[in-house]
């Protein structure tokens, strides 16, 4: 098992949306709430309902996996949570904050501190070293004193067991190593929540299983995870499975 990733105070970002704590100042135990979430895309063929009244509550420390066939609405739901997209109607409440009401600047500040995002295609900046990729979120959010950022980045790389690759470019790493680096980057500002969209989709089964083991370790350390995957075997390792079909929820 990986050693505990240490948390440290993060410098406040001017105008930042403050995180209200695990149970929220509003007394609600749920960390994430999707309420009657609807998303309709306009297409040349007419309106396409990607989400049809989704209700989902996630408590602090849960490891929730979202499964479903292609086109079921999995990625759309994750995009609602991360603020990458906005709902047509309904609410997205995270830590008591109605993030669907935030403007783009507020959303950027809130997401930078409160949410780590892991993508299928890693999204590491190709001209920066792995170490620089991980310090970048700290630089953008002015998190941690400047003199401590490289040390924290190295600490995170040690936790995901690729510290020896700190000064390499992403193209010099395997897919599994790049995904580990992407997870370290998502943890840079010590967010309480990680959201991942098909994070093992480009990895072989053995490497994918290792990434899920890392996710389980993060949950044991207090993180809350919401992960989209098409792999039912990996999904079975989570504490809870949510299944979508045709924009609606089959089970939760």
Outline:
With 252 residues, this protein is of the alpha/beta class.
Walkthrough of the structure:
With 252 residues, the protein is α/β, with parallel strands linked by helices. The chain starts with 31 loop residues before the first strand and ends with a strand. The radius of gyration is 18 Å and the shape is globular. The protein has a domain at 62-72 and 104-251: P-loop containing nucleotide triphosphate hydrolases (Rossmann fold), CATH 3.40.50.300. A hairpin with a 2-residue loop joins strand 9 (240-245) and strand 10. Helices cover 30% and strands 25% of the residues. It is built from seven helices and ten strands. The chain has helices at 74-82, 104-114, 130-141, 149-159, 175-186, 205-220, 232-235, and strands at 32-43, 46-58, 63-67, 89-94, 97-98, 115-118, 193-197, 224-228, 240-245, 248-251. The protein has a six-stranded mixed sheet.
List keywords for this structure.
disordered N terminus; 25% strand; Rossmann fold; four-stranded antiparallel β-sheet; alpha/beta; six-stranded mixed β-sheet
List the helices and strands and how they pair.
Blueprint: E1 32-43, E2 46-58, E3 63-67, H1 74-82, E4 89-94, E5 97-98, H2 104-114, E6 115-118, H3 130-141, H4 149-159, H5 175-186, E7 193-197, H6 205-220, E8 224-228, H7 232-235, E9 240-245, E10 248-251
Parallel strand pairs: 3-8, 3-9, 6-7, 7-8
Antiparallel strand pairs: 1-2, 1-4, 4-5, 9-10
Helix pairs in contact: 3-4, 3-5, 4-5
CATH fold label of the domain at 62-72 and 104-251: Rossmann fold
Rg from C-alpha positions? 18 Å
By CATH, the architecture of the domain at 62-72 and 104-251 is named 3-Layer(aba) Sandwich
Shape, per Cα inertia axes: globular
Instruction: Give start-end ranges of low-pLDDT stretches.
Output: 1-27
Strand order of the largest sheet: 6-7-8-3-9-10
Strand content is: 15-25%
Which structural class should the secondary elements be placed in? Answer: alpha/beta
Question: Main β-sheet: number of strands, strand sense, barrel status?
Answer: 6 strands, mixed
Share in helix = 25-40%
The protein's oligomeric status is single chain
What's the rounded overall pLDDT mean?
86
Q: Which CATH class of the domain at 62-72 and 104-251 applies here? A: Alpha Beta
Individual helix count = 7
What's the CATH H-level superfamily name of the domain at 62-72 and 104-251?
A: P-loop containing nucleotide triphosphate hydrolases
Distance separating the two termini:
29 Å
């Amino acid at each position: 098992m990986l050693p505990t990733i240490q948390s440290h105070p993060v410098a406040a970002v001017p105008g930042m949306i403050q995180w209200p704590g695990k149970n929220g100042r509003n007394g609600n135990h749920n960390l994430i709430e999707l309420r009657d979430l609807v998303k309709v895309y306009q297409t040349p063929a007419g309106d396409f309902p990607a989400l049809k009244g989704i209700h989902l509550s996630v408590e602090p420390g849960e490891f929730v996996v979202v499964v479903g066939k292609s086109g079921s609405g999995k990625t759309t739901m994750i995009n609602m949570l991360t603020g990458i997209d906005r709902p047509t109607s309904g609410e997205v409440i995270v830590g008591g904050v109605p993030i669907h009401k935030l403007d783009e600047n507020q959303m950027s500040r809130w997401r930078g501190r409160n949410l780590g995002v892991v993508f299928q295609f890693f999204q590491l900046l190709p001209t920066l070293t792995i170490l620089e990729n991980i310090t970048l979120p700290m630089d953008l959010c002015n998190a941690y004193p400047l003199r401590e950022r490289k040390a924290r980045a190295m600490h995170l790389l040690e936790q995901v067991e690729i510290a020896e690759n700190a000064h390499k470019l992403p193209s010099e790493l395997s897919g599994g190593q790049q995904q580990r680096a992407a997870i370290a980057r998502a943890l840079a500002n010590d967010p309480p929540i990680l959201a991942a969209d098909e994070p093992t989709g480009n990895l072989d089964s053995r490497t994918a299983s290792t990434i899920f083991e890392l996710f389980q370790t993060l949950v044991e350390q207090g993180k809350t995870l919401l992960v989209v995957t098409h792999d039912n075997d990996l999904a079975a390792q989570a504490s809870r499975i949510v299944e979508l079909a045709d924009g609606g929820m089959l089970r939760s």
